[in-house]
């Protein structure tokens, strides 16, 4: 019995050996001296073995680690012939991907000024801090930043992103935070006034003529008494207009200044919880009075005094007028945002919530105007609606931003508001959830209210854009934002 078993095993081993020999004989590596490589590929496996032939049965000659690049000369039946340094052989083609050549930026090195594209214009930064990024999107790494009122030259516009150069700093910045440089209006030259002609002297009268008698002057008419008193003008405080009501200081110490600027001379300090009367709101500054102290303060540190039984919300349709925002797949951002914003407004009003719109037509309020609108209205919440854009059409989904700075309660309220709206939107319009993120967008980081910025979807992506083009999905998106706002009001107990 043992002899029979031994005989059977010997036969099996013999056939196995012949099979391997036949397989090996059929594997002919390509002549890499005569053919060009198919390209470079990056290894995606932790370790990818290089074998003598196109099968896992062949002997290993070495291995390539993850993210290493190899040259590929031939791919047949999921096996590829490659070279890696001095090693060449076969690897499984399942575990590498082709290296795509990165597009070089259109702007070349600073030294070769003759080859650099000409600047297409000049802009001024209107954000406190504007990050410069490696690519046209917030996903790209920041390479530096620009301060407010800095003039920069622009070379290229991609959707809502602009390529700039400022000395050694170059990269992409958001177009939202750049304003055009106004050209000085030419002064018209007025023609010199003609000199008056000399008046001829009267000739002397002859001695024998009689003087002509002058008529008696009529008495001046007596003034008629006024029948009505002049209407009283609207009372003002030192010429600073009507009061917008009271606000509460929400930082430990708030400097009151002589002018509308951080460079203005301090005239007093207000402590946290102090009530002030507010006048003349402009560009994020307000003239306030509190006892004997009067001057300008940043509205960023003034809390609204909306009663607990009232809800006042600002709905901001992003962009507008001269600023179209992003565009893609036959959609323009400023049109989509206004349409959705108006649908949200209708739903909120039907629920008894007071709504203040930053724009109701194709106009362009500045970022400061949008913030000031909420401050003047004594609103408690601010929601800005936008659409996204990216250079790669594959980017898709919904994301909502908030700012983590300022008082702790405001930062927390902003985060909760962003979370409620984002969750409702993703579920309702069935988009990829890109999450709730912190960002320093002007309309939310300098806003004293609980404030968020919603990115509905990507106009550069066909699937997202097809939904945003549909009235059905615009209604669904508006309802989701409305429900997220209701969730937030319930959270804060309103």
Report on the structure:
By secondary structure, the protein is of the alpha+beta class. The chain contains seven helices and 29 strands. The chain has helices at residues 2-26, 333-350, 367-376, 408-429, 442-445, 462-468, 471-491, and strands at residues 39-43, 47-51, 60-65, 69-76, 79-84, 87-92, 96-98, 121-125, 129-133, 142-147, 151-158, 161-166, 169-174, 178-180, 243-249, 253-257, 266-271, 275-282, 285-290, 293-298, 302-303, 312-317, 327-328, 331-332, 354-357, 381-388, 398-402, 433-438, 450-458. The strands form eight sheets. It has a six-stranded mixed beta sheet, with helices on both faces. It has a five-stranded antiparallel beta sheet with strand order 6-5-4-1-7, with no helix packed on it. A five-stranded antiparallel beta sheet has the order 13-12-11-8-14, with no helix packed on it. Helix 2 packs across helix 7 and helix 4 (408-429) runs antiparallel to helix 7. It is elongated and about 95 Å long. The protein starts with a helix and ends with a helix. The model is unreliable at 15-26, 107-115, 207-214 and 224-236 (pLDDT under 50).
Which segments are poorly predicted (pLDDT under 50) over 5 or more consecutive residues?
A: 15-26, 107-115, 207-214, 224-236
Rg from alpha-carbon coordinates: 37 Å
Shape estimate? elongated
Distance between the termini: 90 Å
**Number of E-type strands:** 29
Helix content: 10-25%
Mean pLDDT: 82
Strand order of the largest sheet: 25-22-26-29-27-28
Note the beta-strand portion. 25-35%
Described by strand count, sense and barrel closure, the largest sheet is: 6 strands, mixed
Helix-strand makeup class: alpha+beta
H/I helix tally: 7
């Amino acid at each position: 019995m043992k002899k029979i078993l031994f005989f059977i095993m010997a036969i099996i081993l013999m056939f196995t050996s012949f099979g391997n020999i036949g397989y090996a004989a059929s594997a002919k590596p390509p002549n890499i001296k005569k053919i060009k490589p198919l390209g470079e590929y990056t290894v995606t496996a932790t370790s990818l073995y290089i074998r003598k032939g196109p099968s896992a049965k062949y002997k290993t000659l070495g291995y390539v680690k993850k993210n290493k690049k190899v040259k590929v000369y031939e791919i047949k039946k999921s096996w590829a012939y490659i070279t890696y340094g001095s090693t060449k052989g076969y690897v499984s083609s399942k575990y590498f991907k082709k290296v795509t050549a990165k597009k070089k930026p259109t702007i070349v090195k600073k030294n070769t000024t003759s080859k650099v594209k000409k600047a297409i214009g000049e802009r001024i930064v209107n954000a406190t801090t504007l990050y410069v990024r490696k690519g046209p999107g917030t996903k790209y790494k920041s390479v530096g930043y620009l301060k407010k009122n800095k003039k920069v030259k622009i070379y290229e516009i991609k959707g809502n992103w602009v390529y700039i150069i400022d000395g050694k700093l170059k990269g992409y910045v958001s177009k939202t935070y750049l304003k055009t440089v106004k050209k000085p209006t030419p002064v018209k030259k007025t023609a010199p006034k003609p000199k008056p002609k000399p008046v001829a002297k009267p000739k002397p009268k002859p001695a024998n003529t009689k003087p002509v008698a002058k008529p008696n002057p009529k008495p001046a008419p007596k003034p008629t008494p006024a029948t009505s008193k002049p209407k009283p003008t609207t009372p003002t405080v030192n010429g600073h207009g009507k009061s917008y009501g009271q606000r509460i200081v929400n930082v430990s110490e708030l400097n009151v200044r002589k002018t509308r600027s951080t460079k203005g001379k301090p005239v007093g300090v207000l402590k946290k919880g102090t009530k002030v009367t507010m006048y003349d709101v402009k560009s994020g500054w307000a003239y306030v009075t509190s006892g004997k102290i009067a001057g300008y303060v940043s509205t960023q540190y003034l809390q609204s005094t909306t009663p607990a039984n009232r809800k006042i919300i600002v709905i901001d349709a992003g962009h507008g007028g001269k600023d179209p925002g992003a565009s893609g797949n036959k959609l323009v951002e400023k049109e989509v945002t206004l349409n959705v914003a108006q649908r949200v407004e209708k739903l909120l009003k039907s629920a008894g919530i007071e709504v203040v719109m930053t724009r109701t037509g194709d106009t362009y309020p500045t970022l400061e105007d949008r913030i000031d609108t909420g401050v003047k209205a004594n609103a408690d919440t601010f929601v800005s609606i936008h659409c996204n854009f990216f250079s790669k059409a594959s980017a898709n989904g919904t994301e909502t931003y908030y700012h983590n700075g300022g008082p702790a309660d405001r930062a927390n309220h902003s985060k909760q508001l962003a979370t409620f709206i984002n969750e409702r939107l993703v579920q309702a319009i069935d988009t990829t959830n890109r999450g709730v993120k912190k960002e320093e967008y002007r309309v939310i980081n300098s806003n004293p209210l609980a404030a968020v910025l919603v990115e509905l979807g990507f106009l550069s992506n066909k699937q997202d854009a097809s939904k945003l083009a549909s009235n059905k999905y615009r209604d669904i998106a508006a309802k989701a934002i409305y429900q997220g706002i209701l969730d937030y009001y319930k959270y804060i107990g309103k």
